[in-house]
């Protein structure tokens, strides 16, 4: 996760978080007929926040900074 590197988080730890978040998102997405990018971003940020609030903040704000 790029956001984790920006905050100098350990790569191994970020890989574990990414794996857990991916599994949670897969469960969340099952059965949904349509998922917008905004829905996916929000759901992902919410799940990242359980593990690291700072990384979740950067994830939510990516592409919004000038």
Give the amount of beta strand, in percent. under 5%
Q: In which range does the helix fraction lie?
A: 55-70%
- Tell me which oligomeric state these chains represent: single chain
Task: Let me know the largest β-sheet.
Answer: none
Please tell me how large the radius of gyration is: 12 Å
Structural class: mainly alpha
Overall spatial form: globular
- List how many beta strands DSSP finds: 0
Tell me the number of structural domains.
1
Contiguous uncertain segments of 5+ residues: none
Describe the structure.
The protein has about 70 residues and is mainly alpha-helical. Helices cover about 70% and strands about 0% of the residues.
What is the topological layout?
Layout: H1 2-6, H2 11-29, H3 37-49, H4 53-61
Helix pairs in contact: 2-3, 3-4
Give me some keywords for this one.
70% helix, 66 residues, 0% strand, mainly alpha
TL;DR of this structure?
The chain has 66 residues and is mainly alpha-helical. 70% of the residues lie in helices and 0% in strands. The protein has helices at 2-6, 11-29, 37-49, 53-61.
